[in-house]
Write a structure and sequence with these properties.
The complex is a heterodimer of chains A (316) and B (617). With 316 residues, chain A is mostly helical. In chain A, 78% of the residues lie in helices and 0% in strands. In chain A, helix 5 crosses helix 8 (176-210) and helix 5 (89-124) runs antiparallel to helix 10. The longest helix of chain B is centred in the first third of the chain and has 37 residues, at 172-208. Chain B has 617 residues and is of the alpha/beta class. Chain B folds into 3 domains: 53-263, MetI-like (MetI-like fold, Orthogonal Bundle), CATH 1.10.3720; 310-466, Rossmann fold, CATH 3.40.50; 511-609, no CATH class. The chains are: A mainly alpha (316), B alpha/beta (617).
């Protein structure tokens, strides 16, 4: 229990550090932030506009006061207003975040239900035809960047075969069938790379654990292959898999940017790209903060899962 | 040779890509920026091999210039991250806790941001372009390098030769600089290829979004983005940059895998598990002894060729008897034990001979039969009880499991029997101890639990591989006592593998002395101790601490490596009594006196002047 509390404490500390860095990032850049955000292609911005932005962002106040105020707002869940249309950043994030999370969850599910069993199969039949074939497939999966795969998928399935439309989004309540068809392509694009990662780590981990002393003991006890695999190998082999999947999911939280862009999917990351292009700093700050907090939370979840899998972690 | 070429292809391919990118400005290509709008989206032709893009620019030229940008960004950011990260990691490892926190732990903050996100945050502030990309990517990969270097310093710092150099007065930072860098070279190379591959992906992704390399400069990401808009008219334009990018990443990944494999000490080779050939004539099943081994030879395929760490070993063990197998580390005694159980590691396999347990031949038996016998009629206790017990299951469950594997037993009955077994091996408070994990027990307790597991189904053969080596001296005696009791009560035959002669004297009825994979002497334990027939046994006895307090004498020289054995007697190079005859041919194991065997050609001469061979009378 003390261990769980300690892990949560560390995570809260990290969230605070992340929030502070996101706040300070704009001040770390040399030059006047307001001017910087407004400058386009080297042309000097209009002084009146700079002053207005400075006031809007509260940049005219002392740094410490700005920092405390922004932390206070973050704690209350207020991430400021968009520079583009003055809408609430929090509101927009709340609207878009579930879509991105759904996309990631669908991709992770696809990758896990294929990668885990195939990784085990390849490890148990190492050197066999299935192992070699799957290793080639996973190498190809890792070599295809997600936006390349996505673009090629659009070219093949939408442009050439006309099976699906090139992208977009429909709410579940409005048209469930259409919702899942539109979700399938971006999810599959993400899942391909993730599958390769899950497959490889599962294979390597099962192989590694297979030659541990305690598995030799299990064999010396005359247990069946099935029992050795399910009881003595899998649980121990799952630990590195959990880490790798979590790391990739974390990267995906920011990495769906490319997929959402390719498939015109209105998630959180798409919002981020628009915001970066428009140099809408409050919006960028808000999205980065939310994603980083999710990232830290995910790492905490991994630690807790680790504790559940490995009694040694729990007790240390 | 073919294997080597096969493994080095990523590096050759990588070199070709890098050279192509490097010499691009020197090639007779058109200007990557010169437009030809009249021929926009033109198909491949003699003058434009890969076609022309949406402004009529030559695609091949753009592709090659794009490679330059991608590789330049990847190489500079990786190099910067590598140099800075390694320096930070080493500083963290060298200068104590505060430096460690500042240089290494603080890096973890970077890891709180998904890489693409961090890049986007910085691009918002600094604007897109290669000059922004390089520092961002360098920052993203910094923690990885810092960790590798830090771990390298820690590993080297604890090594004895570094301690020794420090005692000799060398400054610690100089030692570390000279020893760490060569040691972390391998992991650093892996990290470099990892970072480079990831940098190519990130750069192209950002350029694809229009937030990386800025037009009119060429980049594969930009080309894909542009081709996407003209996908309907000219789908082939999409193909070239996608192909170039994917092949480059594939090559970098393959290089990374190859480097990782080369650095992995646990590379495993597979081999046939079971002897399929017919039994040699004369090798008929025996019914009397618990264990009979005849002419067992084990081979291990190594990258340097096949070695034979166990050669022509024959043994016999009757019920209720204890046979000790004695030898230095690397003499093949553990492999011998494992091959009896059919538990050899993948690379090792028996290539000739036969093993009978209770009359069943095992080297040719199917895995299902071995599975039925293991843990049931034959059992094994391993050297290190901590690593041999599964860390995620309770000790009681691991004992109950072996019971249920061989007998129909309800969960509660198995649990009760497990507790009874724990009591029998002398573990106090067995009900509570059945519920703990192995790491919560003391070393002696763990080994007792392992023994309980081994004797659970009352086997007729128990193989104990250095069961007391990992234990305290006081605990050793108790565990030996326990094993002797269990053996007597269960009328088991026991093979006791050890390097400790006092242990042999205490527990063994017969003893087989192994040297570099061969049995050199075999016989009744008391007789062998009183009057060794092989000079190696004599030397071993002299090297053991004696009871009268005289100093032990070490055996001069070292055990020859298994892949470079001398042609004659393998002990000859270290033997005080060698003659030219010893080095001429490999001596056979001969019957000396009834029940005694030796592999020394001069045993009779040496017996005639007994004191010179040095029996410990």
């Amino acid at each position: 229990m003390a261990w769980v509390l300690k892990r949560i404490g560390i995570s809260l500390l990290l969230v605070w550090v992340v929030a502070s860095i996101v706040f300070l990032a704009i001040h770390l850049v040399p030059g006047d932030p307001a001017e910087l955000l407004l400058s386009q292609g080297g042309a000097a911005p209009d002084q009146a506009a700079v002053d207005q932005l400075r006031e809007q962002l509260g940049l005219d106040r002392p740094l410490m006061a700005q920092y405390l105020r922004s932390l206070g707002e973050v704690v209350r869940g207020d991430l400021g207003e968009s520079l583009q249309d003055g809408s609430s950043v929090t509101g927009e994030i709340v609207r878009r975040l579930p879509r991105t999370l759904e996309l990631i969850a669908a991709a992770a599910l696809l990758a896990l239900i294929t990668g885990l069993p195939l990784g085990m199969l390849a490890a148990l039949r190492r050197g066999g035809i299935a192992d070699r074939l799957l290793s080639i497939i996973s190498a190809a999966g890792l070599a295809l960047p997600v936006f390349v795969l996505g673009t090629l998928m659009v070219l093949l399935f939408a442009q050439t075969l006309h099976w699906v439309s090139a992208g977009g989004y429909v709410p579940l309540a409005q048209a469930p069938g259409k919702h899942f068809t539109l979700l399938a392509m971006p999810a599959a694009a993400i899942a391909t790379g993730l599958f390769s990662a899950v497959f490889r780590i599962t294979r390597a981990s099962v192989l590694d654990v297979s030659w541990r002393d305690y598995v030799r003991t299990a064999r010396a006890k005359g247990l069946s292959r099935h029992r050795i695999l399910t009881r003595h190998i899998l649980r121990n082999a799952l630990m590195p898999v959990v880490t790798v999947v979590a790391l990739h999911l974390g990267t995906l939280l920011g990495g769906t940017v490319l997929v959402e862009y390719v498939f015109n999917y209105p998630g959180l990351s798409g919002m981020l790209v628009d915001a970066v292009n428009a140099r809408d700093y409050p919006e960028v700050q808000g999205v980065v903060l939310v994603i980083s907090v999710l990232f830290v939370t995910l790492n905490l979840a991994v630690d807790l899962i680790y504790g559940a899998l490995d009694p040694q972690v729990r007790n240390s | 040779m073919i294997g080597r070429v096969y493994r080095s292809w990523p590096f050759v391919a990588l070199a070709i890509i890098a050279i192509a990118a490097f010499v691009t400005p020197l090639l007779p290509l058109s200007n990557p920026l010169s437009m030809d709008v009249a021929h926009r989206l033109a198909r491949p032709s003699a003058s434009h091999w890969l076609g022309q893009d949406e402004y009529g620019r030559d695609v091949l030229t753009r592709l090659l210039w794009g490679a330059r940008v991608s590789l330049l960004v990847a190489a500079t950011s990786t190099a910067a991250a590598c140099i800075l990260g390694t320096a930070l990691g080493m500083i963290g490892g060298l200068l104590g806790p505060l430096a460690e926190f500042l240089a290494v732990r603080s890096m973890d903050i970077v890891l709180c941001f998904p890489p693409l996100l961090l890049a986007l945050l910085v691009v918002t502030l600094l604007g897109p372009g290669a000059s922004t990309l390089i520092p961002v990517l360098a920052l993203v990969y910094l923690p990885g390098f810092a960790r590798v270097a830090y771990a390298g310093v820690l590993a080297v710092r604890s090594q004895e030769y570094v301690e020794a150099m420090r005692v000799l007065g060398a400054s610690s930072s100089r030692i570390l600089l000279r020893t760490v860098l060569p040691n972390i070279g391998g992991p650093l190379l892996v990290q470099i290829s990892l970072a480079a591959s990831s940098a190519v992906v990130l750069e192209s992704g950002l350029s694809f979004l229009g937030l990386g390399v800025v037009p009119p400069a060429s980049s594969w990401g930009l080309m894909i983005a542009a081709a996407r808009t003209t996908m309907a008219q000219a789908p082939w334009l999409l193909l070239w940059p996608c192909l170039a990018l994917s092949v480059t990443i594939l090559t970098l990944n393959a290089a990374c895998d190859a480097l990782r494999d080369a650095n992995d000490p646990h590379r495993r080779l597979s081999g046939r598990r079971r002897l399929m050939d017919a039994l040699a004539p004369g090798m008929l099943p025996h019914t009397g002894p618990v264990l009979e081994v005849q002419g067992l030879t084990v081979a291990i395929a190594t990258p340097g060729g096949t070695i034979y760490p166990v050669r022509e070993v024959s043994l016999r063990l009757r019920p209720g008897e204890t046979l000790a197998i004695v030898g230095e580390s690397g003499s093949g005694k553990s492999l011998l034990g494992l091959s009896i159980m059919g538990l050899l590691p993948l690379a090792a396999r028996p290539i000739s001979g036969a093993v009978w347990v209770n009359g069943n031949e095992l080297l040719r038996a199917p895995e299902s039969e071995l599975q039925r016998l293991r843990g049931n009629r034959m059992a094994m206790v391993f050297q290190d009880p901590l690593s041999s017990l599964n860390p995620v299951h309770r000790v009681g469950d691991q004992i109950a499991e072996v019971l249920q594997a061989h007998k129909r037993l309800s969960n509660s009955a198995a649990k009760a029997k497990a507790i009874a077994l724990l009591t029998r091996v002398g573990i106090p408070d067995p009900v509570r101890r059945a519920r703990v994990f192995s790491f919560e027990m003391s070393g002696g307790m763990r080994q007792r639990a392992m023994i309980a597991m081994a004797v659970a189904n009352s086997p007729s053969l128990l193989i104990a591989d250095e069961p007391t080596t990992a234990l305290d001296v006081t605990i050793q005696a108790q565990v030996l006592e326990l094993m002797a009791t269990l053996k007597r009560d269960g009328n088991m035959g026991m093979v006791f593998i050890t390097h400790s002669l006092p242990v042999v004297a205490e527990i063994a009825d017969t003893v087989a002395v192994m040297y570099a994979g061969e049995i050199v002497e075999h016989g009744d334990a008391i007789a062998v101790f009183a009057n060794p027939l092989h000079p190696y046994t004599a030397a071993l006895l002299r090297s053991a601490p004696s009871e009268n307090g005289s100093l032990p004498a070490c055996v001069p020289g070292i055990v020859p490596p298994i892949n470079a054995l001398p042609p004659g007697c393998i002990f000859a190079p270290r033997c005080d009594h060698r003659r030219p005859a010893c080095e001429a041919a490999r001596p056979p194991l001969v019957n000396a006196t009834p029940g005694r065997m030796t592999r020394c050609v001069r045993w009779q001469e040496l017996q005639a002047c007994a004191p010179s061979i040095g029996a410990v009378a």
